[in-house]
Amino acid sequence: MYPPMRKDFISLTLTEQDSRNYNNSKNWRRQSCWRKWKQLSRLQRSLILFLLAVLVVCGIATYPSLAERWGGLASASEVQARNVVDPLDPRPVVPGIIPDLDSKMALVLPEPSHLKQRKPFPNKRGPPGLQHRVQKRGNISESEVKEREGPALKGGAEEEEGEKPLVSWRGAMIEADQATEPQPSAKENEAPLSLDRGVQVPPAPGGVSERQEAVVEAFRHAWKGYKEFAWGHDELKPISKSYGEWFGLGLTLIDALDTMWILGLKEEFKEAKQWVSTELSFTKNVDVNLFESTIRILGGLLSTYHLTQDSLFLDKAKDIGARLMPAFNTPSKIPYSDVNIGRGSAHPPRWTSDSTVAEVTSIQLEFRELSRLTQDDRYQKAVDSVMKHVHKLEGKHDGLVPMFINTNSGQFTHLGVYTLGARADSYYEYLLKQWIQGGKKETELLEDYLQAVEGVKKNLLRKSEPRKLTFVGELSHNHFSPKMDHLVCFLPGTLALGAHNGLPAEHMELAQQLVETCYQMYAQIETGLSPEIVQFNLMPRNGNDVEVKPADRHNLLRPETVESLFYLYRFTRDKKYQDWGWEIFQSFNKYTRVPTGGFSSISNVRNPESPDPRDKMESFFLGETLKYFYLLFSDDFDLISLDKYVFNTEAHPLPIWPSS
């Protein structure tokens, strides 16, 4: 056998006489690169071209001259030249920021002189008009952590004379920043009334105070955005000038009906009523949440009927109430969470057969009132059976209830976790308010409420460090957590309401302690706006009582603290509650207001320079937050008297039933 043949190779370099020899010339390198490019696959070439395009776009976006145009911030010289503020503009302006001279009100809104002045923030990052979410009060939680979420581009482009000074932010025009003190020029031209703590604000013409006028202006501003960009839809998205749908039933409009009536906005109310009359239909093939549609739509329609005596709203309430009844067709009579109001069917969420305890026990005020008005007892029977079932149910802990209940078995699930926050909060609120609504006759409701208050005091109350703030934590399998949702700030108002109706005086004392804690959840934050959830410090130390986790720094324009301030002021007449509310209102106006109309939830209350708006105005901002602000600033205690009305959990007042 022959061995395999060996193959030898010889490398030769052939030279030519012309200029095509390899000599590292540019021409040679071009040809070599082109050959390599052609050897790449089509996918590889496409990826390279895409990356190049991205780099070009990024380069253009960061080019200094364009950054100046997009940043929209004034230069220092412009700021000094424009430092004189129109005395008719109620929204004070931070030095260094161009004021919005076009948005004016007829009254100067001076800050109470006792309030601590805040240092103006320098013009460094983000749109000053919507410097979202960052708290700005004197006491700062997590002060050692100073976040700066993404540097925004500065700009010094000059504005044309007479042009409205706005700042561009993510495609939307955001208002110039607002401070809390009028400029000296304004003070020279007009001597504002003193709003010192303990001194009553002189009413404006018609018995409406300056602060109430400010709330009316804020409502009109929010309504302007809703009317222009989201009319007839559920929610306004003010930054993108569009709308969001949840049920497709005009939630914001219905939620705001009674607010407009209380605020005396006749033209706005007339327009909204026309939409309800001609456009609102409940025949849609759409799933709605039983709880949310009850408190917002049914509650809003019933409240507006009582305030106006217009049968249109009662007829609409009857329609939606009847369409929600299939939710109670369950083996346990504990209602499902979702109802298709067009098909007349109901079902639990796709992922569970449980409903939340708060949802199934916070629809009673509305359905009971619907029965009283229609003389049809099926509504009240359905919701009363739920309360009677929960009253005798095992699984409670000193009157505290778990967060979930099964619609098939009717039993509590996820035992061992107790909170007054999300999924359980309004259960406790409606125990008291049903008792008040029904003339204080239903003793089971009162017993459950009193037992629950004692359970809170025994298991959930603690004091923080270093200021000894009383707060309500959570209990999970006998482990205490110093976590408190902003939602829990309903509790001071509820406790005060109970004390006003003859319950122990110590409930009022606890209410006053807790409402101060809720105020500190705003005051110790840089923007003066509370986060969704706070953690209280329990260890002795210097610093703030309040800590905030990064995931909890958002503010959704919630009403609970303002609600409790309203109750405490009504029952104690202590002006400090109005002053605390005024601080909070100014922070909302400063960090969440969008100049084209509306207010936006923000993502970071810890960063005044870039609060990061979420582009969403919840319907409860008009239905609850601004309504409670207006009532808080009123010294007319017969305006929605708490001896004649009880508010549902969406701030819709329903009448207390006559004794007969």
Tell me what the structure shows.
With 660 residues, the protein is of the alpha+beta class. Helix content is 40%, strand content 10%. It has 21 helices and 23 strands. The strands form 9 sheets. It has a 3-stranded antiparallel β-sheet. Strands 11-12-13 form a 3-stranded antiparallel β-sheet. α10 packs across α13 and α19 runs parallel beside α21. The longest helix has 20 residues. The radius of gyration is 30 Å and the shape is globular.
List the SSEs and their pairings.
Blueprint: H1 26-39, H2 42-61, H3 64-71, H4 76-81, E1 135-136, E2 166-169, E3 172-175, H5 184-189, E4 203-204, E5 208-209, H6 210-229, E6 235-237, E7 242-244, H7 251-255, H8 257-263, H9 266-278, E8 287-289, H10 290-308, H11 311-324, E9 338-340, E10 345-347, E11 354-356, H12 357-360, H13 364-374, H14 378-391, E12 404-406, E13 412-413, E14 417-418, H15 425-437, H16 443-459, E15 461-463, E16 470-472, E17 474-476, E18 479-481, E19 483-485, H17 491-500, H18 505-523, E20 533-536, E21 546-547, H19 560-572, H20 576-591, H21 619-632, E22 645-647, E23 653-655
Antiparallel strand pairs: 2-3, 4-5, 6-7, 8-9, 9-10, 11-12, 12-13, 14-17, 15-16, 17-18, 19-20, 20-21, 22-23
